Amino acid sequence: MPPHARIDAGHPLLARRSIRRFLDRPLPDGLLEHLLDVARRAPSGANLQPGEFIRVVGATRARLGAALRDAHRDGRQESEDYRYFPEPMPHALRRRQVAAAQALYGALGIAREDRAARARHFERNFDFFDAPVALLVTIDARLGAGGYMDLGMLLHALMLAASAAGLGSCAIGALAHYPRLIRAQLGLPESRHLVCGLALGYADPDAPDNACRTTRVPVGEFFTTLGGEE
């Protein structure tokens, strides 16, 4: 590939990673709204623009986090609004899942058998990793898989916009485990399906978990060419 055609290593797409430790530094006024305004240019089939973002702050955020931690510690389970993981999990996907967990807990120095430490770290999901911005992402329950595809592009656009602005982010799928609890806490209708959370803020450059990198499969595993010269 010619040098001028390569994407620079500093591009937000290549620099982006999941951030789980943030500085105690608020975003400037209007920055979040600006990032959302930029992200809404993401592709959207028929321009439906599905998905909504809810920022939770103050006492509401604290109560929500406490309720989620209690539910997790009590072993309470809810039916999720949508299925993310296949059942049963194929071995190839399970290996990727395990490798990602090993990379994260390895960076933190948490041993596999230290279940208490792993549980404490997992519960940080419910505090949005103490990020200055805590967002919940919902979608109209009437939308099908295509709406989730569009919402995923919007989420990625927001995370790339944040990266370009010098911010870090982390999508939080663990929140999707408790859709009824979250709707009850925030007074949301059943028609709003809970997709995930999003933590946003300035990354702590010294945090070991922020140094974690997960691998991606080689292009040859998911790309092929069919057809040829007739």
From TrEMBL:
User: CDD domains from the entry?
Assistant: PnbA_NfnB-like
| Flavoprotein among keywords | yes
Residue ranges annotated as transmembrane are 154-176
Keywords of this protein's UniProt record, alphabetized? Flavoprotein, FMN, Membrane, Oxidoreductase, Transmembrane, Transmembrane helix
Keyword Flavoprotein belongs to the record:
yes
Q: Which PANTHER family match?
A: IODOTYROSINE DEIODINASE 1 (PTHR23026:SF90), NADPH NITROREDUCTASE (PTHR23026)
Q: What is this protein called?
A: Nitroreductase
Q: Which organism is it from?
A: Robbsia betulipollinis
